[in-house]
Amino acid sequence: MATTGYNYKIDLIANCIFIKHYGSITFDSLRERSNDTGAHPDHRPGLNRVLDLTGCSIEIDPAGIRAVAGYIKEQSALRGTYTEILIVDSALAFGFGRVISGLLDEDFVRYLILYADAPNLGADVKKALSLGNDYLFPDFLAIR
Questions:
Q1: pTM score above 0.70
Q2: How many Å apart are CA 85 and CA 49, to the nearest integer?
Q3: In Å, how far are 16, 74, 80, 90, 101 from 105, measured between CA atoms?
Q4: Tens of pLDDT along 71-98?
Q5: Nearest of 41, 33, 46 to residue 84 by alpha carbon
Q6: N or C: which end of the chain has fewer CB within 10 A?
């Protein structure tokens, strides 16, 4: 298993890109992943996103947080309207998500932050994405 970087899967039937980050989360790592996934031939506007940040360290200072939010805003014309769900396992990751969500335009992004140990995590994600109860998430995610 990777110790840094990310893994992802675009599922067009689910209308979602599922992403698992590993290691340190920095502005550069987020931008690299966004550019990489955005270049995938199946990427399209309106794809929902599930980002699993469990086990990651958040290494972004306040200026970096503003840069992340600014980058997301710049990309909004390409992304369309979508739901983004962060799966976290620490108060720092939760706080990072809250600050980012506060800087975004809710007309484009519906932002949800869920703890990985939530008892109904899988059902909550499926409901938020309008997925059927029998949907199976990619194995690399912390969702069961």
A1: yes
A2: 6
A3: 20, 11, 12, 25, 8
A4: 777 766 666 688 999 999 999 899 888 8
A5: 46
A6: N
Measured CA to CA, the distance from residue 72 to residue 67 in angstroms comes to 9
Task: Check whether 111 has a pLDDT greater than 90.
Answer: no
The reply to whether 139 falls in a domain is no
As to burial, measured by CB atoms within 10 angstroms (0-12 exposed, 13-18 middle, 19+ buried), residue 136 is exposed
Q: Give me the domain span that covers residue 109.
A: 5-127
Domain count, the chain: 1
- Residue listed under structure tokens 């996103």: 49
- The more confidently predicted of residues 58 and 100 is 58
**H helix intervals, 11-120:** 27-38, 62-79, 91-102
d(CA 20, CA 22): 7
